[in-house]
Design goal:
By secondary structure, this protein is an alpha/beta fold. The protein has 2 domains: 71 residues, no CATH class; 168 residues, no CATH class. Helix content is 30%, strand content 21%. It has 8 helices and 9 strands. Strands 1, 2, 3, 4, 5, 6, 7, 8 and 9 form a 9-stranded mixed beta sheet that branches. β8 and β9 form a beta hairpin. The longest helix has 19 residues. It is globular, with a radius of gyration of 18 Å. The two termini are 17 Å apart.
Length: 247
């Protein structure tokens, strides 16, 4: 079965999440309030164990983002929406979009090696495995926003992956790029998701050129996800994650 970033990075510490959930309930904080989340005692204890000694503020911020995203995903049932080839093509060609996910948090897993992008400017392109998506009404984007954590570079010979976070929302009245607060237009004027790798067109590949395209692709894919749990296949991966096939 195809691995997921949650299974690789968080399956061994997921047993600590119930204590975090209890502390969150006692504190009365909203689950998506990352500033309150990081102040919880079980979170601080866990961070002290997983953040390397001597790591700087940027490394700590990255670990907080990853841990909070994983916790939201776990607390929403660990639903993996596995996108098929045809579904990906529909999303690439679509104009419909939404920033209302069917679950408070979920993971959208793309077909392997089909979409590529550079996690940071100037770095080599890596395959986009998928995106963690969570409702982010309390974020800077305001009501109807989503937080997206895109996962790049998952492969058997690599112990980890690259992650890129972005927040924003969709405006269905303007589906061409300005519907999101991060610019999606390419500098060369080419169409969104066009391949940027040599030979990419012949191989049927796509690329995300910037953060705006990443958010745009996410909001298009969200329109394809079933609105209820009836399609969930129980324990397809393990007790922590469940798969919904989107063909």
């Amino acid at each position: 079965m195809r691995p997921t970033p949650f299974g690789i990075a968080f399956s061994e510490i997921a047993e600590r999440f119930p204590a975090i959930a209890e502390a969150l309930q006692q504190d009365g904080a909203a689950p998506d309030d990352r500033d309150r989340f990081v102040l919880l005692e079980p979170v601080g204890r866990l961070l002290s164990e997983i953040v390397p000694e001597g790591a700087g503020a940027e490394a700590l911020e990255t670990h907080v983002l990853l841990l909070h995203t994983a916790f939201l995903y776990w607390s929403s049932g660990g639903i993996v929406y596995r996108i098929g080839e045809q579904a990906l093509q529909r999303a690439i060609a679509a104009t419909q979009l939404t920033s209302e996910p069917p679950q408070p948090a979920l993971y959208v897993q793309l077909p392997e090696l089909r979409v590529w992008g550079s996690p940071t400017p100037g770095t080599a392109p890596e395959p986009l495995d998928g995106m963690f998506v969570s409702r982010w009404d309390g974020g800077r984007g305001g009501p109807g926003s989503v937080a997206v954590l895109a996962i790049f570079g998952m492969r058997p010979d690599r112990p980890g992956f690259s992650a890129v976070g972005i927040e924003g929302r969709a405006d269905s009245d303007d589906p061409e790029g300005s519907e999101i607060e991060v610019a999606a237009a390419r500098d060369d004027g080419s169409a969104p998701f066009g391949p940027m790798l040599a030979g990419g067109s012949a191989a049927g590949l796509h690329s995300v050129a910037n953060a705006g395209e990443l958010l745009l692709l996410t909001c298009r894919l969200l329109t394809l996800l079933p609105a209820d749990d009836s399609a969930v296949t129980p324990a397809t991966l393990d007790a922590l994650e469940h798969v919904v096939a989107v063909e």
